[in-house]
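Need tokens for this chain, all 133 residues.
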Amino acid sequence: MRRLILTYLATGVAFAAVDYIWLTQFGPKVYFPTLDPVALPSARLGPAAVFYFAYIVGVMALAIWPNRDKPLIKTTLTGAMLGAMCYATYDLTNQATLRVWSTHITIIDITWGTFITAFGATVGGWVFRRLNA
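Here are the structure tokens for all 133 residues:
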């Protein structure tokens, strides 16, 4: 159990740290020119925390754990696929239903989700393997 908790924490910290940089340094340049009229001045922390806690559980269950005995690259690729699908679900649904959504946001955000989920899965997979050694 300790190994899973430490893996979860490592995955979450890696994901959140890199996402924080994205959301504070690059995200406003991507999202706000289009979404400013409907965006909140600051994010609601409750829903954001629920997302992070749940998403990391998903990364653990779908990318890290199933590939625990396989090469780390398999964890990375599975994380990338998971990220692409999750972020595509969000972005393409928004593009299909919202007037203020744009294709460039969809492309950038799916690319970001693919990268950050692969990164988080890789860090988590690496920690999981190291804790077994």
